[in-house]
Amino acid sequence: MSNNQESFKLQQNVSQNEYDTIHAQILTILPPRERYEAGHAGAISLLVSRLASAGDIVAGSGTVGVSLPGGQYRALTIPRIPVSYGWRFRVSCVAMMRSSRPVLTEVHNRPDLARFLARFGPVRLVLHNDPRTMRGAQSVRQRQDLARHVLVCGVSGWVVQRFREGCGPIRTEVQPNCLDLSVLPVPREREKIVLFAGRVVADKGVDAFVRAWNHIRVRHPEWRAVIMGADRFGPDSPETPYLKQLRPLAAAAGVMMTGYRPHEAVLEAMTEAEIVVVPSRWQEPFGMTALEAMGCGAAVVASPVGALSDLVGDAALLAAPDEPGALEQALSRLMTDDGLREKLGAAGRERAARFDVGAARIRAQELRQAAIAFVKHVPQS
Question: What three-state secondary structure class fits 61?
C-alpha cells in the first residue's frame, strides 16, 4: 500500500463529527527515553498524563510498572530488523497508528518523526524544547516543510519564536504547559529553607546556587539550603562526573543533597520551603519548576533566560546565575524581607492559576480540532 493510500485509509477514521475530538481517540507518542511510569516520569509524561482523556492511547518504548493515570498506555513493539533504531521506532509508530486508528496522532519533541508520520494521518507536533536543536527542524527549509504538513505547537512563545525565525509566514500555535492546582499539597507553615528542585546538571545552574549559598550562609544561620534531584528522573539515576564534583562543594557550603525524589515529594518540599531557586543557564523553553513553585506559594528566584521571565512576570525575582553577586543579592533580599516573600508567594499563586489544567484541556481540544482540519488542506506526500 502506498503512503497516500495508507494516509487516506487512516483519515477515514475521522467521523462526520470530526471536529468534536472530545470523545475521539487520540494517539500520543512519547519520545523514546520518556517513561510513562509513576515515580519515573519526566516533564513531558506528566503533562501528557494531565491532558489525556480516558480513551486516549499513550504509546512509548518499553513496558512500565504502574503507568500514569491519563489515558491508556501501550508499549510500542520495536521490530528486530537490520536498520537503525530510529527507523525501527518509526515502523513501530506506524504499526500503532494502524492498530489504534486514531483521528489524530500527537508527537512530542520529535520533528523528524512527526513529518514522517504525517504521511499516514493527521499529526500535531508539540515542542517542549528549542526546535532548532532537533533533528528535522534545524534548517529553515526543514521547518517550513514541517509547518506545511503538521500543526506545530510550542509550549511557550519563546519556543514558537525559535521555530519561526527565518521561515516567513507559517502557522504555529502556543500550548502552554499546565498544572493541576487541585492536587497540590495543602498550604502549611513554611520553613526557612531555600530549595533547588530538578535535574542536577550544569545547565540548571546548581553549582551557581551552591556558590551563592557558600557566600551568604554565614549571614543567615537560621536558614537551610537543599538540593532535591539527580541527573535524571527515577531512582536509578547514575552518579555523573558533575555530581561527583558538586557533592564536596555542597557539603563544604552546608547544602543538603537529597538525591532523586518522586514528583509528589518535590511538590511537598515546595510547599514547605520559603524560597525556591531556579538558576538555569539553559534557555528554559518554559520553566515547569518555576510554575510548580509558584503554584505551591513559594517565593521564587529565577534566571532571566529563555521563557522564564515571561512565565514568572512580576511574581519572582530575576537573577542571572553567573553574574557576580546577582544570585547572592536576590537570595539575601528574600531571606531578610518577610513581607516580600509573602507578596511574591501570593502573586505566584495568582499567576499559576492562569496555567491550570482546566483551561489547558480546553486549549488542547481546540488545537486537536485545528490539527484535524489542518491536514485536509495539505497535499499528502
Answer: strand
